[in-house]
Amino acid sequence: MTRTLAVLALPMLSIGACATATSSPPAACPREVAYSHQQQEAAADEMDEIRKKLGRDGIVVGQFMPDYGRLRDQARACRGERK
What we know:
Blueprint: H1 2-19, H2 37-54, H3 58-78
Helix pairs in contact: 1-3
């Protein structure tokens, strides 16, 4: 569980740093980290474990991860990319 939280905390720290940054037109658009298929599968497994242990989504799965997903979508939109 500690490892899971550590893995999920890293993107959250990045999100906090972006919140205070000022942005200008596309040159300032952030780049999201690319994760391998293997990393994504491992993260999904860990999120499933959190759900099983809590019996619900909890704040990491239910709020932090969707927020991170929206920020990734916004970064892509800023650069004019599609999902």
